[in-house]
Structure formats: structure tokens, C-alpha cells
Amino acid sequence: MIYYFSATGNSKWVADQLADGTGDKAVSITEIMKRGALPPPVESGETLVLVFPVFAFAPPRFVIDFVRKLKVADGAFVCAVCTMGGAAGGTFRYLEKFIRLDSCYALKMPSNYILMSGREADGEIGAKIAKAKAALPAICESVSAKKAEMKARNGYPAFLMTAVVAPLFNKFASDKAFHSTDRCTGCGLCTELCPLGNIAIEDGRPRWHGNCMQCMACIQNCPAAAIEYGDKTRGRERYVFKG
Fold first, then answer.
1. Which residues form the domain of 158?
2. Of 189, 183, 188, 192, which Cα lies nearest the Cα of 204?
3. Which burial class, exposed, middle or buried, applies to 102 when counting CB atoms under 10 A from its CB (0-12, 13-18, 19+)?
């Protein structure tokens, strides 16, 4: 089984590519978590693949919450694939605190963290996607063969960076500056996409309620570009994966 978390489409695309290349099925972690469901146990001989974006050099806390719900037999093959705009840091060493890994891979994809910068140039986006696409067949082959290879399990300097930055990010990630502009149509897409159920439409406009991991699903996917984060995002072009 392939489980993925994706806010703006990068990791979903990777999961879909892996599903096509291995004959497996890609399932959204968000859908499972929103239902409050428990994923079925991963039995000995089965394959589990986790696909997720890197947040501040670590897996999103949402993904860790999901991993804690998993029951994985000793004889199962476990693989993790992360997508990242820049560097993975000690992402996989951090993940190994919560689940045993047999293999791991990192794919550089277009950045979606609009609080830091706007959409990358088309050429850069295209180059990242093309490079990831070229790497995926070999990953599919290795996963199908249950080949143990740690392609992106960085050492302790990277892990120390993760150990410092990730907790600070998780502690201070806030939704206080998110707001909608007059372009908002009240369509409710942001409420549907928020993995934490943190957004509600009140008086025809979205309101954020304090439980945010800054995944950027709301601001990036808004069809009217009507969501801003204070003044930081004003004038910045949005990004969602288009293939």
C-alpha cells in the first residue's frame, strides 16, 4: 500500500507514479485521518510506502500522527519517499524514531512555501519535475523488488539541523496572519482541503481556528487567489502541481 500526504500536488503525483509503476494503490493520508479511521495492519511480506513533503527538514507532524497509527509486522518491507523544495535534512532519521525503514528516497520538487518565496520560474519547475520523473522508474523497480537502499538517509550534521529547526517550526507555525480578501467567493474549497479541519466558512468567508501546520493547501489552491498571509504573500504567484 502507498500512503501519501500532499497539500499542493507534488507528493500526490509521486505517489500516483509509484502506484502506476508498481501496480500498487495510492491512498490519501488526509482522507483516512479526516474519517478518524485506522489503516489496516501491514502484514509480513507486504509492502508499505510512505510519500510526503518535507516541512522544515522533517516529516510533517500530520504524517507522524498517521505513522503512529500504523501496525507494521517485522517481515513487511517499508519504504519512504519525501518530496522537497530544497533539502531533506535528517528527515528519514527523524522518521525512524517512529517506524522502521528498509529504504528511502528524496525527490526535489517545486517549492510551495509561499511564506518564504513565490512560485518558481516555469523552467525551474519543469526541470525539477523532469528530473523526478526520470528517477521514479528506478525507484519503482527497487520497491517492487523490495530492495533495501537508503538513498537519502543523511548523517548527523543534517539530523542536528532537523533536531533544531523542526521543533521550532512546529511550535511557531501559526494561522494568525491568514485572511481572505474581497476576491473570496466563499466556495469552501479551503475547508475541504485543510487536512486538520482548521478552516470553517463563517459569514461567507473562511476563518482559521488555531490548529495549523502551514501546509499551504488553502492559500495555494484558492481558485480566486483570495487568501493572503499578512503582507508576505501579496503579489506572489501561487503554485499547485499541474503535471
1. 2-170
2. 188
3. middle
Whether residue 118 is contained in a domain is answered as yes
- Residue 235 bridge partners (DSSP): none
Summarised one tens digit per residue, pLDDT across range 165-204 is 889 999 999 999 999 999 999 999 999 999 999 999 999 9
In a domain, 178, yes or no: yes
Predicted confidence (pLDDT) at residue 30 exceeds the cutoff of 90: yes
Mean pLDDT of 52-73: 97
What CATH number does residue 156 fall under? 3.40.50.360
Is the pLDDT assigned to residue 97 strictly greater than 80?
yes
3-state secondary structure of 108: strand
Q: Report the candidate in 49, 62, 107, 57 with the shortest Cα–Cα distance to residue 83.
A: 107
Question: What's the predicted TM-score (pTM) here?
Answer: 0.95
What are the strands, taking DSSP E only, across 162-213?
178-180, 199-202, 205-208
The domain boundary residue, chosen from 134, 151, 170: 170
